[in-house]
């Protein structure tokens, strides 16, 4: 084997390694997170649930949202960590146009290997 052939073998091996790493880190192996939330403030009767559904769909996360008898809004969000982080920000700082968010609590954050909820909807 000549030096040129040996270099070609090493280059081929390095390229193959890069391809394998890329395939293994692609969406097929993507990790997701799930987090529960409760939003406090003037968040009922101001279309908060509808806007939450719209924002979840826009971001590409899945989950559900529901009004409580205590005047809060609860729910769950699942998706890629960065998208869930964006949704947490929206829930805690933005909300629907006429809502007034006093506090947002997030709990039970956990890694999941696949989405357990399909779509984003309201629960009653």
Topology:
Blueprint: H1 3-24, E1 32-42, H2 48-59, E2 62-67, E3 73-79, H3 81-94, E4 100-112, E5 120-122
Parallel strand pairs: 2-5
Antiparallel strand pairs: 1-3, 1-4, 2-3
Overall mean pLDDT stands at 86
Q: What is the number of strand segments?
A: 5
Helix fraction bin: 25-40%
Compute the number of helices: 3
Helix/strand-derived category reads: alpha+beta
Descriptive report:
With 124 residues, this protein is of the alpha+beta class. It is 39% helix and 32% strand. It is built from three helices and five strands, in the order H-E-H-E-E-H-E-E. A five-stranded mixed beta sheet has the order 4-1-3-2-5, covered by helices on one side. Helix 2 packs antiparallel against helix 3. The longest helix has 22 residues. The chain is elongated, with a radius of gyration of 22 Å. The N and C termini lie far apart (72 Å).
Offer a few descriptive terms.
single chain; 124 residues; alpha+beta; five-stranded mixed β-sheet; 3 helices; 32% strand; elongated
Provide a short characterization of the protein structure:
The protein is 39% helix and 32% strand.
């Amino acid at each position: 084997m000549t030096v040129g052939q040996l270099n070609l073998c090493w280059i081929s091996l390095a390229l193959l390694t890069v391809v394998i790493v890329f395939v293994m880190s692609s969406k097929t192996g993507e990790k997701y997170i799930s987090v529960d939330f409760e939003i406090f403030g003037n968040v009922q009767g101001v279309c908060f649930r509808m806007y939450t559904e719209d924002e979840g769909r826009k971001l590409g996360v899945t989950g559900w949202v529901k009004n409580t008898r205590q005047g809060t809004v609860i729910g769950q969000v699942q998706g890629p960590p960065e998208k869930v982080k964006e949704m947490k920000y929206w829930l805690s700082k933005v909300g629907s146009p006429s809502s007034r968010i006093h506090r947002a609590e997030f709990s039970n954050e956990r890694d999941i290997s696949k989405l357990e909820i399909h779509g984003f909807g309201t629960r009653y």
